[in-house]
Design brief:
The chain is of the alpha/beta class. Helices cover about 30% and strands about 30% of the residues. The protein contains 3 helices and 5 strands, in the order H-E-E-E-H-E-H-E. A 5-stranded mixed sheet has the order 1-2-3-4-5. Strand 3, helix 2 and strand 4 form a beta-alpha-beta unit.
């Protein structure tokens, strides 16, 4: 979590609360890391970290939106800021789809977050 907070601090985002959410708790079997946080600017952040070797496709982007809806229902509030930190190659259609739906997509180095 320290690496995550340092990553966002470099982007001038400071969290007053950051919670790790197990994917099982929202009914997912996917291998990803989910964080729900509140910034000092009173925005709610949903942060998804995906580290895989295969390409992230448009279909998976749709599944990510569904997971966000489940997370919003689980935490009982909507998230104003949604971030995807991904280490695998990203399909251009998936990236465009996520950005059109209000996501910020950033590529990371896998070893930085493991």
């Amino acid at each position: 979590m320290k690496k995550l907070t340092n990553y966002f601090t470099n982007k001038n985002i400071i969290f007053k609360e950051l919670e790790l959410i197990e994917p099982k708790s929202i009914g997912s079997r996917k291998k990803l890391t989910i964080y729900a946080g509140t910034g000092v600017d009173s925005n709610y952040y949903a942060i998804f970290i995906i580290t895989s070797k295969s390409r992230f496709l448009r279909k998976q982007a749709q599944e990510l939106l569904e997971l966000t809806d489940k997370l919003a229902h689980f935490k009982e509030h909507n998230f104003k800021k949604k971030n995807l930190l991904i280490s695998s190659p990203l399909c251009s259609k998936a990236k465009l789809f996520l950005q059109d739906n209000g996501w910020k997509v950033n590529t990371i180095d896998e070893k930085d977050f493991n």
